[in-house]
Amino acid sequence: MNGWTGKIARVNLSNKQIQIEEPAAELYYQYLGGRGLGSRILWDEVNEKVLPLSPENKLIFMTGPLTGTRVPTAGRFAVTSKSPLTGTVFDSNSGGIWGARLKKTGLDGLIIEGQAAQPVYIVIDETGIVVKEAGRLWGLDVPETTSAVQAVEGKGYSVACIGPAGENLVRISCIMNDNTRALGRGGLGAVMGSKKLKAIAVKGSKSVGIADKEKLQFVLYETNKWLKASPVTSQGLPEFGTPVLVNLFNESGIFPSYNFQESQYDDAENISGETMAEKLTVRKKGCYGCPIKCSRETRTARETGAGPEYESLWALGPQCGIGDLEAIAEANYLCNRLGLDTISVGVTLGCAMELAQRNIYDSGINFGDAGKLLQIINDIAYLRGAGADMAEGSRSLAQKHGAESLAMQVKGLELPAYDPRGVQGMGLGFATSNRGGCHLRAYMVGPEILGVPKMVDRFSTHGKAGLTIFYQNVNAAMDALIICRFVGLAVSEEYFARLLTAVTGINYQPQDLHVIGERIWNMERLYNLREGFSNRDDILPDRLLTEPVKNGPSKGHVVHLEPMLEDYYRFRGWSKDGIPTEKKLAELGVI
Amino acid sequence: MHREFNQIGRDLFLQGLNSSHSGNLSIRLGDRLVITRRGSMLHNLKETDLIETGLDKNDSHIALASTEIGVHRSIYKNTSALAIVHAHPVYATALSLVEDEIIPIDSEGQYMLHKIPVIGFEHTVGSDEVARVLPEFLKEYKLIMIRGHGSFATGQLIEEAYQWTSSLENICKIIYLTRTLKGEIKETKSEKYTKW
Question: What is the predicted ipTM?
Fold first, then answer.
């Protein structure tokens, strides 16, 4: 095979059995890899009776057909599992170099199942797969774990691991790789922790098979022309990193603060990309094969670390009423060390702060309490005091105090840094996302704010259902390839179809990527329906539907979800209740 | 919606991409589509010139729809397009009579479109053959030329499909103009786009 290796390893931690499997070529063709193949395997192997933190749940690490090639940003990998935070099918993907190294060992992916009796870590290289005892690693944070594994296995190994938060089964914990990259969302760190799997070290140097090197060279040249031509990918992100979005979104009135009570933040300038570049940035960093290099090595007066990225900056900052850039950066460093999802941590903290503001529950932290951030984040990771409640996520915290409407989440997943009252399509995207409140599924700020491919009226609901579906499908295919979302702001799927054709030797047309994306989307929807989700879960927090924005460019707006949702189900070819019809599923080859 | 149709229709006419009563526009709304009325003047569209009908099923409005409705339906059913612009650009139509594919020689055109296939049909207007063949090309290319007839461009938004149409005519004007000049073209990097 070209592109794929054709091999997936299955590691059972209960009985330590390791098998190499060769999935059918048709499965690769239909689901590509990454999120696509991961979701399909989860559908086939993890049914509705399986609890997310039980040995029966699986953790599926998957690369894509472009991973490890010279295609820009194609060093990514995805992890798919049943989420302990949302109960939905859940994938999270990450950059760095781990994904490319896994692929270069000769594997497309890795299915982890069962549960080890004692902590273990896995080593994968071209000689094979070994499960090793990890008792001395248990309790270490992410950088300590990475260093300890590399000290034994060698510096050439790339390490994905959990921190104390994952070990303690915190439902908003993540898996980290290459020290500072995160498979951030959905509590996948807790799934890894439940399996007593501390780390996976990978090292490989095998080349990925390329069917048509000349064609690949040609299409890469054309692709890179667009990346260089777009001010987003050639200037904005390289110069300021993802925080370049702070001023842009704040000026548009879609930059929420104080737990979405406001849609702008007064001190946004103090935490903007420009300010961060001036005050914190030490150097730019990029993932494998990435010409954009949006990551940042940063330094405060006390520490050095990575980030914060835009979402983390917002979650640990304005969402909590905090505008102290150094405090935000250090809170972000700590989350990375402990293995916590910065978005869910920030939104859960914001929820706790509003509970205190309304005298419902005083957890000891209030809006603006920058000085208490580090303590409470540690408490979350180690399940201490009020932190133990927050470790379950915002929905659980708010429910416990009879105020669920104050949790800014969808299907249990905390919302990211966009107030959908000022971007209607984003609201529909949040509500219908298969993994809960996620911005990346549709990323409607592309057409609604950034004008990619063309600017549309962000306050209008007209045409948003069709566009949202279009992007959900395209992005599902991109997550199966796996390509960074930022590339899509400069390069259309046409190029990726041609790149995929050059790499695999199979003729993929742009339209094929749409169909693959639609197949993945329906597959995931079916999974969630089997878990007991329904159209009642395609909803937003009350605040966003009923409380008009008080000030700024989005003043007076709420999300008009209902009419968009009706169109959405119809346009998807689903029933009025949001259930994929048998005709649609058969057409896509899902069943 | 009317404003958007009217603006694009007017601009197509003003740019010389359509004559007074030629061309048609549509957008997809799930299992419905909105298409311009048969014989409407795209540069002066009234609200009653926008006809909504089913993507699969006919209703009484079909009697008013553009003669190209079958082609539009087929494109929507077989591609992920959400908007279609059909136009009759003069230079592109002329070039389509002498070429099997249009390869841009200007930098902007090469960036945008790389290559535009030209397809010949016995019956070019509203034929089943066009409806059957066109989507296959539009799965891979943003727009195509029907020889001696006109262009079909797709996009997520009608503005996007308009952009490809406008770019196409610019590309063809430049090719036409350079062919009337006596000098040799200094750069021939366009040749590689035959492989696109």
Answer: 0.85
